[in-house]
Amino acid sequence: MERRQAKRRIGVGKKAYGQADVLAAARARIRLVFSHFERVCVAFSGGKDSSVTLHLALEAARELGRGPVDVLFIDLEGQYQATIAHVENMFASEDVRPWWICLPINLRNASSMREPYWCAWEPGREADWVRPMPTHPAVISDPARLPFYRYRMEFEEFVPAFNEWLARDVPTAVLVGIRSDESLNRYRAVKLGAKTKKRAWTPPGGEGPVAWSTQDQPASRAITFFPIYDWKFPDIWRYIADHGHPYNRIYDQMHRAGVPFSQMRICQPYGDDQRKGLDLFHRLEPETWFRVVRRVSGANYGARYCRQQFLGYRGGLGLPPTFTSWKQYCQFLLLSMPPVLRQVYQRRIDRFIQWWAAHNYPVDCWPDAGIPALENRKAQPSWRRVGMSLIKSDMARSLSFGYARQDVEPLLATRPGTPR
């Protein structure tokens, strides 16, 4: 373990440091959690960070003589075989109370305009599933088991709902293994707890809010903690090696295939960010690739061209010579979309225009192509920004939009056989 000083808080400006290394700091954080919560649940993806978090939690539970640690694994069907083998290995421990979720969850498909969303474990399409339904005794595939569940819930909806359900009888701590140096979004997820005190947990009799914690609602009985937020990539692997802990062997294959450390992620294969690594299934697990590419519309196209400029990657695409402006090109791209999808994009673009107008940047003053550095920081609107979002088919995610049920449900309703 690198003897780096652990961050004690995250602020907008300078960071304060203590004298403990990151391993000792993480252990102290998890012991603090166990001392205040009767139930501790680890959010587990099968990846390196959540695996280390689970190992640390089990270590603390044994040290403190605590009972089984709850572990939530949401199986999104399109998983590496190596990931499932690692999950089964971790769930074999008597110290783990496993929750293996195999329910129809709505997910993004960034490889197709015709099918912008897909459904893991979709009923009626069993023959198309990437994998058969697992038979582990911890598997929950019956929607009736979870009273809060709604058909085709979003992943981002399911997780907080499950946490609240798990905490219905006793306050629950949820340990999430995200590191703030992996991405800006993850840094913000952790920083929010420090910046917004009302969303950070304060221990009874404590000195103040715990910066590496957050809660979705003020009255929530489920508090989320990020005990390894200040770890670096080498810290993860040094801890695993020093302690001989099991890990997902797909990382060995990624390393041999030359995958950069920053792109070693375990997640569903068809999302906006994940599409850039969709071709890895072909390189790492050819036996899984055939079913992955057949599972959703456009997967083979996405894998073949995911790293090309004309899909908005590797520096982006210049304005095609047949168009005189990015605004004109945006109008062409919108007209090429299916009508229902076009309405979703048009509504979001209109909201984008309204937001900038309310912030003293009316659409009449927009540059056709802005300053790249400002566009990349989302500090300047332009028709090129809108065009790049349309090219990427990212549901206006690059225009700062997230999931919205009012936009997703019309798209799902166009699919035959969709339950209402």
Describe, in short, the structure shown.
With 420 residues, the protein is an alpha/beta fold. The protein contains 15 helices and ten strands.
Which quaternary structure do these chains form? Answer: single chain
- The run of helices and strands is HEHEHEEEEEHEHEEHHHHHHHHHH
Which consecutive residue ranges, at least 5 long each, have pLDDT under 50? 7-19, 309-315, 416-420
Distance between the termini: 52 Å
Number of helices: 15
In what order do the strands lie side by side in the largest sheet? 6-3-2-1-8-10-9
What overall form do the CA principal axes indicate? globular
CATH architecture label of the largest domain: 3-Layer(aba) Sandwich
Proportion in helices: 25-40%
* Mean model confidence by pLDDT: 83
Number of strands: 10
Spatial extent as radius of gyration: 22 Å
CATH class of the largest domain: Alpha Beta
Largest sheet: 7 strands, mixed
